[in-house]
Specification:
226 residues, alpha/beta, Rossmann fold, globular, binds adenosine-5'-triphosphate
Length: 226
């Protein structure tokens, strides 16, 4: 009994935060920090994606740069770490494979973190119904988010598999995994905006970390090729 209790208390809560991070910006970092605190996560692992199935290839710079910019941007936060799992896997990167990778042989509680904008497209993700059998999900919602639980918070095909638990205020999947909607500051920053600024020679200061900015300039990233 004592052994079981010790095991349970050692079970960590790990957040998995996937994205293109092209480049990583303060919206990503602030979002992750707010989620970490709200859910008392022990760690958040940033997972840059290799070839995101939903995005146009031309605009996405070399994975090694995106990885390095995340590494630099999170260096001062002891709760943030990075994984190159999606970059080291050949071919397209799918979240379901990534979650399975972290799930394997791991007793920790896993929470996949994504923005509301990404969640509304979840039906287009590979094997999306099964995602919710593997780990908990946290959707970062924009300010003003409709808090009252309504089925329309979920994409149609997901609704039969979820029930709202009034007591804990959480959507519960048939598998027992949870789906949380958490309102965060959601800074009005996007990687697209950062790339556009840099492309036209403007400053992206205060939208990205100074380390990311220095790296971009050092390597001449996102500048229009002559
Ligand atoms: P792009 O402008 O190139 O589409 P992006 O800024 O949306 O990129 P991604 O790398 O695609 O960045 O996002 C990774 C994850 O972070 C997604 O789940 C996305 O919804 C979320 N996200 C994006 N911008 C913000 C933000 N400002 N605050 C919180 N989360 C964000």
């Amino acid at each position: 009994m004592k052994e079981k209790m010790e095991k349970e208390t050692k079970r960590k809560k790990i957040g998995l935060f996937g994205g293109t991070f092209n480049p990583v910006h303060l919206g990503h970092l602030r979002g992750a920090e707010e989620i970490r605190e709200a859910f008392r996560l022990d760690e958040i692992i940033f997972i840059p994606s290799a070839i995101p199935p939903h995005k146009a290839m031309e605009e996405i710079i070399d994975a090694k740069h995106r990885l390095e910019m995340v590494r630099l941007a999170i260096a001062s936060n002891p709760y943030f770490s990075i994984s190159d799992i999606e970059l080291s896997r050949p071919g397209k990167s799918y979240s379901i494979d990534t979650i399975r990778h972290f799930r394997e042989g791991c007793a920790d509680a896993l929470f996949f973190i994504l923005g509301g904008d990404a969640f509304v497209e979840i039906e287009t993700w590979k094997d999306f119904q099964n995602l919710f059998t593997l780990c908990h999900f946290i959707v970062m919602a924009r300010p003003g988010f409709q808090k009252t639980p309504v089925a329309s918070q979920l994409p149609g095909p997901l609704t039969p598999a979820f029930q709202y638990d009034l007591e804990t205020k959480v959507w519960v999947h048939l598998s027992g995994c949870h789906l949380y909607f958490k309102e965060i500051s959601f800074l009005d920053i996007s990687s697209t905006k950062v790339r556009e600024l840099i492309e036209r020679g403007d400053s992206a200061r205060y939208l990205i970390t100074p380390e990311t900015e220095a790296y971009i300039h050092k390597h001449g990233l996102y500048r229009k090729r002559g």
